[in-house]
Fold each of these.
Amino acid sequence: MNQFHLCDQPIDSAALSRALSDASAGACVTFEGWVRNENAGRAVKRLDYQAYVPLAQSEGERILGEAKQRFTLIGAACAHRVGALAIGDLAVWVGVSAAHRDAAFAACRYIIDEVKLRVPIWKNEHYASGESGWLHPDNTPVT
Amino acid sequence: MRYNILYFASLRDGAGRDSEEVESVHANARLLYDELRQRHGFTVRQQALRLAVNGAFASWDHGLADGDEVAFLPPVSGG
């Protein structure tokens, strides 16, 4: 079942959390990534996310599958916004359920770290100066 | 060979479009990017890009086929 969601509307984190509930889960860990008003010393007014949708979808699903293999989990889900966001908006949500908290904390961290590293989504920041720029961090391609 | 090229982020801005149908002699993805880089004036080096072919990540050594959908992916910044 598809648990990686690209959303062009606000993320319903309450619904996503409810979907993780399970009688055998003793722990649920969630992460929220919010739009911040500053990056590298520049005042950010708003931003856009753009995705290569089919590959973002499949790579996001792959990451969730890896998390379930590496950690003893019951459920894992992730939602990422696309389109225009304002300061304070919820940009990305990760949720994990497990019998115990060690796996839940570790898996949640793994998922957000891998999503940031691998999923084909790009951020365009709009600065107070009126300038804007696509962020292309200096990371080496995996292949 | 005909390809459908997909552009994202700064490459999309540089090309002025999100995709284009391209006719090229190259089946080598590095040479294809170099051709497009010169045509559009992209400043991103090939070494900084990831390649995707038909919706899946691909090695730069992947031989392209006529009709392929080819995407050049700048370093990502989601999350």
Amino acid sequence: MDIGLHQIWGIVRYEALMQWRRRTLIVLFGFFVVGIIGLSTLIDSSRTVLNRMTAVQFEADRVVIRYENVATGAPVEQVLTGDAAALVPRWFANVDMTTFQTTWEFLLLLVPGVLVLLLAIPPLVAEIIPLDSQYRIRELLAAAPLAQRDYLFGKVFSLWIGTGVGLAISTVIVAGYVHVRYGPVDALLIVRFWAVLMLPVALIMSGYAVLLGGLARTRRTAVFIGIALLAVSLLVANGTIITAYVSNPLFVSARDAGSAAGTYESLIVDMFNGAVNGAIPFAVALVGVWVLVWGVLRWKAEGS
Amino acid sequence: MIAVQALKKTYRGGVHALDGIDLTIGTGMFGLVGPNGAGKTTLMRILAGLLKPTGGTVRVFGHDLATHAGRQQAKTILGYLPQELGLYPNLNAYEFLDYMAILKGIVQGAVRRRQIEALLEQVNLTDAASRKLKTYSGGMKRRIGVAQALLGDPRFLIVDEPTAGLDPEERVRFRNLLSDMAADRTILLSTHIVEDISQSCNDLAVIKNGRSVFRGSPADLIGAARGHAWLIRGAAQRPDESLTLVSSLQLADGVQYRVLGTPAAHYQAVPAEPTLEDGYMWLMRR
């Protein structure tokens, strides 16, 4: 392995270990899990819906919707005809309604959680590079044959790995909770939601925070930079999480049921595409920020 | 071989830290002494590739420190112990040394392990290797700093005040360790503790106001004070200001002053064998 890659891997390993021991990410994702479970409990306590849809059956001139009474578990049947029947999306026939509903309740629960996470990440992680100055370790690092580029890669990747793992573990915990409490969930859809939506936006925001925070001389200034990045967090959330929220199949089906010709899968793909398209400009800007910060740090080191 | 020619460093704001230093340092232990603010740390930071000189040339084993590539190459053969040493508080000693070894480019895990275990043994920290660094005393932290500087068996070692914070036994141990290592490498030792220089360096330079004011062996520096060191006993008052007071020792029957200069006859001064400290003080006085 090239020495530079070896050094990057070393920084990733030990930074991840130090992040674990500093407990910052554990606290962050702990709040994420507790917050989502708390929110679900809150929603449950104020829930007025008595019946949960279990199956939709399309017949020649009518649609039969079967429900389960949430309180008693007793089956309930509803028959729709005419215009009312036409409003029910056709793809409802091809999905397991119990899993579909549980999964989407879970994903919609995740959306506010991720939103809060996006706001919490920048102030908490912006300090990672200035911490080296606070520990007075920068001089040792500068005396090592370590390129500024590799140092930055190591720092950012270590946080990305920590964020990815933390997000994965907390998502699994919440999904397990939902599975136990409400019923089966579509694990594959949750993995896709995690990989396509949650992870990229979390990585984008943590990347901005670490890189721009790295320009600060002190930890405190870095935290202020992290706070200032809350505005960017809102923009990223607006282009991705909010987009996914309003374009999810549950809402599309209700809005465009009569004309919605797509399948469940195509609606999900559309939703993810919308979110990815929203994230791309921020990802491109992150590359620009990365190059800029690398240039500034190198100029500082060269110019001193 | 370290070659420094007409080296200048002016900080932003116009402070001239170094003003035309010329030095050639070969294999062995080289001492750097001088008062606070003389420019020692600036010189060492330039030699470590941390600062760019304003003027002059510096070559470390053939690598030109004026270029980025040259500095990076020089860092591959460098061990550095800064005056203000920082450590990661949440890592233990073994982890910290492993991390530093990776950053120094020691790729093979087995080599790192072997070196770290040997160095922990050398600095007497094997038993505390799994303790987090935030629990270490000042002296223990210093020893870990020493160990990290020695990682990778560097050809050029820069140590800034290495024995500060060490107890006498540790100081002697560390001095001997450096002396043993100096046989086949260049060690640049900066210290305020003149005794460290006299016990371990065969060559030294004294820096004052950014200039080199002395270059030679400890014996040469001692020789500079020969005939100027005196002992004055029993004086009720301190010697006058024309003499440089090196030390005063309270005895049962009065006070014994060690002075440099030419004492008046009424002091009844007795000539003394000069020490390295006398030589340094005499040089500073001139």
Amino acid sequence: MPDLQYTSDEMMTIAAARMVHNGAALFVGIGLPSAAANLALRTHAPDTILIYESGTIGSKPAVLPLSIGDGELADTADAVVSVPEMFAYWLQGGRIDLGFLGAAQIDKYANINTTVIGGTYQKPKVRLPGAGGAPEIAASCKEVLITLRQNKRAFVERLDFVTSVGHGSGPSSRDELRLPGKGPTAVITDLGILTPDPETKELTLTSVHPGVTPETVAAETGWPLKIAPQLQTTAPPTEHELAVLRDLQERTAKAHAGQA
Amino acid sequence: MARILQLRDAVHDLVHDGDIVALEGFTHLIPFAAGHEIIRQSRRDLTVIRMTPDVIYDQLIGAGCVSKLIFSWGGNPGVGSLHRLRDAVENNWPVPLAIEEHAHAGMAAAYAAGASGLPFGLLRGYLGSDLPKYNERIKFIECPFTGERLAAVPAHRPDVGIIHAQKADRKGNVLIRGLVGVQKETVLASKRSIVTVEEIVDSLEAPPNAVVLPYWVVSAVCEVQGGAFPSYAAGYYSRNNAFYKQWDNIARDRETFKAWVQRHVMETRDFDDYKRSLEQAATHA
């Protein structure tokens, strides 16, 4: 079989999708996490229950939503609930297996920032949208996956603002804060996969995507990156995964352009 | 007790300078027409509340109606930043804008507390986040039974709650369906309320478990067909994603924004006239 051509973003989305276990109740953030979750639903995890904070439970959208509350998400859902109910009964109630988040900045304990970058809180260099549902998704889902592109601006020694807690300042933080879920279990980037060390909870490079060296990943990381002794190489995208992802993105682009 | 009014009259009678106003909608059913009427009537010094301030809040802020924003996620969904919001926070343009920032779970709890007549909303939230360091209205209390540390946020009690819905009947009972967001809580938490609807009908034909706001908890019902455009109304029209994308360019520059608001909002009579002016602009572009 000839080598498949694919982009690093495609590899990231496919690697992130593979992390979803079939049947999980999955709280989905918009953007990269939503693409990965929908790919999982269409490949190895057809029984995944997609939950969006707009109130939809069991969405099966035909195209990727542009916003967290596109009509498609409600029209294809098993149930639609109010926003207070979503956050109270479903998220804080402990019903969600897996939270899937993006981030603008992340630190070595997988804490994330989606609030401000640079300057001060009052006069930031970049004002981001803010917390949305993320702090409580990160707190209350049984497990959390994070996906974002890896570079030194995003992977920083110290966050400009802690919006949502991953592993705080180390192994005992989540217990001290009495956070119900076990926190981030993997960070999937366009270069590889980082997982928290079982003892220290520090993010460790455990897999590099094909063609990426650990040195490249370290160079794009703003702290001295720990590399697992048994570093894996991520399996490249399969023909099927790529075809499904591309088809989904193509149909999405068409659908969103069609309403001028 | 609901009065069936023209939107112009409802905003004139019920929204005052200095009020706390919540125009809610979670992507779906966003009350754009009502927001425009507030701009048209040049309301000032409003404190506005919204979980997800998006394009209509960008317009209200850029038009100088707002002095404080209480929110949990501010952006143009799927597109990027709200340029008018940023310009107001970063450069005090056109007027200084104070912000009070929460997370969604806290905002939802604050609306539910307001609707319940309770002083604060309670949640397992904000633990370890920096948000409480910058928002002194997020506090922590101890559960009297288990000792667990929980977050408390003051109840939202807007002077005016404004939402858009699919239907009302002639008495003013309102039916909302699809993504219902925090709209019911917003109306019940507010001292006064305005509901714009796609149509006023003889009978709602609402199934028993539908989200219905009875006429006696709503102050004014106004028929504004398409009043949630460019957001959507399930069963009537879909989201105009192209407009959200175009907004990025309109809002990026102060002069472009000012010209847009002047031409399409200030110089139009109502929402129908606004939509005609957008169509004209598109034809001549």
